[in-house]
Amino acid sequence: MTTDSGTGIVHIAPAFGQDDLDIVKTILPKDDANNWLFLPVDDYAEFTSDVPNWKGIRCYDANKDIIQDLKKDNKIVAQNTLNHSYPHCRRCETPLIYKAMTSRFIKEQNIAQSTIPALDTISFTPNSIKNRFRDVLKSAPDWNVSRNRYRGAPIPIWQSDKNPEERIIVKNLEDLYIHSKTGSANITKNIFVVHAEKAKNDAISKK
Predict the structure, then answer these.
(1) Are the CB atoms for 21 and 100 separated by under 8 Å?
(2) What is the pLDDT of residue 9?
(3) Helix/strand/coil for 190
(4) Each residue's pLDDT tens digit, 103-112
């Protein structure tokens, strides 16, 4: 949809897009906008009981059948296919969806009176970064501190609470499988994911 493409109807889905939600917030009371979200897709990208005909089916897998049903009911005005870039998971290369989630935020602007002056107590190298960081804090949106994926590079050392001298140092994936409490190397291999390394994950799943 462009400004010079004529008259049209734009579908707004506030539960699946920040811009869409912002538009809804201009119509409804901002603090009440979240209560109006219709979110019929769960954390596995599968339809919930809000869409009974497609409950338990991944939204992407249901696309063709939904379109066919709309055609049967004579509710399709036109159908076109557009090729465009789309975000995919770097780990498993599956397509991603953008959806509203319950999260915790830090209201940055509410604490700006403390964080911005605190910059003067920090040494930056090079010093010019300080001004750039100050500008970021002045306009920073609420900071989402919730996470639904594990990231980072933890040190693979386990130490016994009862005997600090008793330690297990995991050298590789095989070591992790051996020390797994599940007693099943296959279960561990299925659930363990090497961050951002799809080739290794494929190799592990085939063992």
Answers:
(1) yes
(2) 78
(3) helix
(4) 888 999 999 9
Short-list 49, 83, 47, CA closest to 65: 47
DSSP, residue by residue, 167-187: EEE--SHHHHHHT-TTS-HHH
**Closest listed residue to residue 21, CA positions, set 140, 101, 136, 110:** 101
Asked if pLDDT for residue 128 goes beyond 80, the answer is: yes
Q: Is the distance from CB of 23 to CB of 33 less than 8 angstroms?
A: no
Give one DSSP letter per residue of 55-101, joined into a string.
BTSBHHHHHHHHHHHHHHTT--S----------B-TTT--B------
Nearest to 172 by CA among 152, 189, 196: 189
User: Whole-angstrom Cα distance, residue 180 to residue 107?
Assistant: 41
Question: Of residues 133 and 2, which shows the higher confidence score?
Answer: 133
Asked if 89 and 74 touch (Cβ cutoff 8 Å), the reply is: no
What 8-state DSSP symbol labels residue 3? T
Per residue in 77-92, pLDDT tens? 888 888 989 999 887 7
Read off the pLDDT of residues 144-203 as tens digits, 9 standing for 90 and up. Answer: 888 766 556 667 788 888 888 888 888 877 777 777 765 444 444 444 555 445 555 455
For residue 132, give both structure tokens: 């750039």
How is residue 43 annotated by DSSP? Answer: T
Return the structure tokens found at 140.
């920073």
